[in-house]
Amino acid sequence: MNTILSNLKIQVNEKIYVKDPETSPLGKKIVEQSILLIDEIGFDNFTFKKLGEKIGSNESSIYRYFENKHKLLVYLSSWYWSWMEYKLVFATTNILDPAEKLSKAITIVTEKVTDDKNTEHINEAILNKIIIAEFTKTVQTKEVDQENKEGFFLIYKRVINRIVGIVKEVNPEYPFAKSLVSTIVEGNLHQHFLMEHLKTITDCNESVSTTEFYLNLAKNVLR
């Protein structure tokens, strides 16, 4: 799978950026260092001025790639979910048993993320930390309806609906497949956040992974 992934280009809606950052060394550096800086200081404190200082480039050069920092965060989110979709597709394509396929899909979207060495300029483990902490800021905005119409969240919704299709294979009679899967995918981010910051209100910890919890949830709901 790693060989296949290394030859694939992660697809992101072109309306999110001004210039595709994947097309130049500076663009890739902007993406790489923005991930590190957002992880270091948080999205609220992140600015293009600070990023420009970090990469040794003018602030104006960053605006040639992204209109604002919100669009940059949406780009990072879209990139993450596109990468996750590739993993999901290749991990489940040859599995015939629906229950086994669902278990694999849930594992893919909930397991601890490690850095993918096939993407040299993006550290997925750190990007995952940003998605856990900041993902809601990409969708919970006044512009969400318009951005949704423009397809900003298409990849994220595609990940959800791929797993919804597997749930329907497991139990075609279950009436809440979309709600179940969106709860698993986004709830997993919340559980990881609780594990890191509010440990007393989650059962997930170093011994009990979020994957175990959501596999158990799905099994009991769909039995």
Explain the overall architecture.
With 223 residues, the chain is mostly helical. The protein is 65% helix and 0% strand. The longest helix is centred in the middle third of the chain and has 24 residues.
Q: Find the structural class using helix and strand composition.
A: mainly alpha
**What about the largest sheet?**
none
Rounded to the nearest angstrom, the distance between the terminal CA atoms is 31 Å
Task: Supply the number of helical segments.
Answer: 12
| Strand proportion | under 5%
Radius of gyration: 18 Å
Averaged pLDDT, please?
A: 95
Order of helices and strands: HHHHHHHHHHHH
Pfam families: TetR_N
Keywords: DNA-binding
Protein name: TetR/AcrR family transcriptional regulator
InterPro entries: Homeodomain-like_sf, HTH_TetR
In short:
By secondary structure, this protein is mainly alpha-helical. The protein has helices at 2-6, 25-41, 48-55, 59-63, 69-92, 98-110, 124-134, 136-139, 144-149, 154-170, 177-197, 210-222.
